Amino acid sequence: xxxxxxxxxxxxxxxxxxxxxxxxxxxxxxxxxxxxxxxxxxxxxxxxxxxxxxxxxxxxxxxxxxxxxxxxxxxxxxxxxxxxxxxxxxxxxxxxxxxxxxxxxxxxxxxxxxxxxxxxxxxxxxxxxxxxxxxxxxxxxxxxxxxxxxxxxxxxxxxxxxxxxxxxxxxxxxxxxxxxxxxxxxxxxxxxxxxxxxxxxxxxxxxxxxxxxxxxxxxxxxxxxxxxxxxxxxxxxxxxxxxxxxxxxxxxxxxxxxxxxxxxxxxxxxxxxxxxxxxxxxxxxxxxxxxxxxxxxxxxxxxxxxxxxxxxxx
Length: 314
Prior knowledge:
Elements: E1 14-15, E2 20-26, E3 38-44, E4 55-60, H1 71-80, E5 84-89, H2 107-120, E6 130-136, H3 138-149, H4 151-154, E7 160-164, H5 171-182, H6 189-193, H7 203-206, H8 210-218, H9 228-239, E8 252-257, H10 265-273, E9 280-285, H11 298-311
Parallel strand pairs: 4-5, 4-6, 6-7, 7-8, 8-9
Antiparallel strand pairs: 1-2, 2-3, 3-5
Helix pairs in contact: 1-11, 2-3, 5-9
């Protein structure tokens, strides 16, 4: 994988309050001859800087979601672990990034944009700074694809992974729907790829609290109907992900919901079997649905993540 459009010498950050800053950069992929989409990034720098204990967590969101879905995690951590920094990126077509809502042409585009962000950020090796990547749903697939296909490029940048609910049960439903739609359409196939025939991730499917469900359903930055092409790209990535576990050489934490129907539990368990045991930590949550970071008992998840990361601080 190669990065294109490396015309920007550095990321230009706009400072906000409370050690928060924002920036954007041009997506590494062109679309139909038009100018690149702008990718939005928000950085939450540590409130207390300890040169001996520096952790930066890169947050990668799920399909249809955006950086704001991690707000509870960020705020909870900053209040209790003020030495931790966060960097959250909205994928193309999501959140505050530009582009057709809920659409990307190729899964590689998401990976390339994240790789670009990693290469443009400065890691302080002299102070033993640790970079962790937390990917939820589709974001977990992006993190895995990056680490496995271009491992040498990011070898000294990514120190560990947290993957949550990254193998989803969307394959059979959408494959059947796609077969029906695409049959006999000929030249209209490209147009159909941008169609949005199915609602993805109802609030009640990913959350158990009525207030949280309502907030999710009314969030203007959540994309409830991603394009058929985006779903198809995720399907292809899931189908080829299982062998990736055998090549992972970084500490990995897997978080898995056991409530609800969106998570492919057997698939995650099968994936985990290929990981070296000394690198793997697994946590399962029997009373939580897909959106772990906004569920009622989310603090359990936050505590598990921070306890795991502290092991690798030094």
